[in-house]
Amino acid sequence: MEVLLYYAIFFVSIYILAIVFRDKLKVDVYGPLLMRRTKKMRGWIDYIANLSPKFWRWSMNIGIPIAVFGMAFMVYTIIISLEVMFQKPTTALLLPGVDIPGSPIFVPIFAGIIALILLMVVHEFGHGILARAQGVGIKSIGVILLAILPGAFVELEEEDVEKAKRAVKLRIYAAGSMFNLGLAAIAWVVVIVLTSSFIPYAFQSDGLKIISVTPNGPSEGILQEGMVVSSINGYPVNNRTSYTELIVNKTKPGDQMTYVTDKGTYTITATGQPSNQSIAYPGTRSETHLVVKPDVAQTYGEIIPWFLYDLADVCYWIYALNLMVGLFNLLPMKPLDGGYIFEELLRYKVPENITGRIVSSVSWVMIAIVALLIIYGTVPGILQMF
């Protein structure tokens, strides 16, 4: 709840500053949309594009079929999600630091903000690099804010885009998501290397750490973020696996749960999960609490092991958010890149007037499904926070 208040204060402050100092800050205000353009980064994009224009073009020749496959996969996924939603509503909001009751995803604020910034920069620069590698000009680069939704953009020269061949357009449209997926792959390799080698060597388990207490949940006001739990109802909880087994197999909604922590002993009464009332819900998120092994601390100290651990955590969220958002952006609906890719593919065989109607119809259907998933799944979880 406090994090949502901080977000509200932050975004309201940005809007006030943008409106009051719009001329000095060179901000365009269009109702709830704020936009700031600049030309300062065009030289850097040109430099990257000119390192090897052929490489960028041929890499996106591979990226186009991957994007089309990703589009089909996302259409299938979103339809399946719609079916599952009515059977088992699931809350999900990728807002760093905000813990919504019933959500399977909680994005930590520090790692999440870094991942989101990289996601936007890499996505838009991907479009810009492919555009310049193929002779399409860039008008400006900028950032936008729509209500609480931040974003970035690369504004291309419209005449150059209109004159460009279909293959050129497809490469440019596919580049954003392909750059996101490429960054996700790099981050995943870093995560795999660190979590399979150094982290098991450097750390050992020392209980379960509470990383978040869900607002208005059964643990609110009793348990606190940062507590290290050694046992629950007399059962040792040394890691996430033992904790999950305890919740699923040995606890029911309505049961009392006694936590032995490093701050004392506390008792809560479990409720049912917001998405499944038959499963016990303590209203906390936890992770295995790790400490540096004594022999490792003697050799490397505490700073290096924890730096590499935090690096693995940040890279995990870079991987996860770039993968999710990169694929979501391939949905065949405008103004997402997938909508433009879908439109160009249709133009290859379908007359222009029919293409426009098909793209518009499909876009509205996709928008309706996404809106329904958000409203039906996320809004009830948000209301539980108040």
Automatic annotation (TrEMBL):
List GO BP terms, alphabetically.
membrane protein intracellular domain proteolysis
Annotated Peptidase M50 domain residues: 112-368
Where is it mainly found?
Answer: membrane
Alphabetized, the UniProt keywords read: Hydrolase, Membrane, Protease, Transmembrane, Transmembrane helix
Tell me what topology the record assigns in the membrane: Multi-pass membrane protein
- Classification via SUPFAM superfamilies: PDZ domain-like (SSF50156)
Under PANTHER family, the record lists: MEMBRANE-BOUND TRANSCRIPTION FACTOR SITE-2 PROTEASE, PROTEASE M50 MEMBRANE-BOUND TRANSCRIPTION FACTOR SITE 2 PROTEASE
Designated name of the protein: Membrane-associated Zn-dependent protease
Q: Origin organism of this chain?
A: Methanobacterium subterraneum
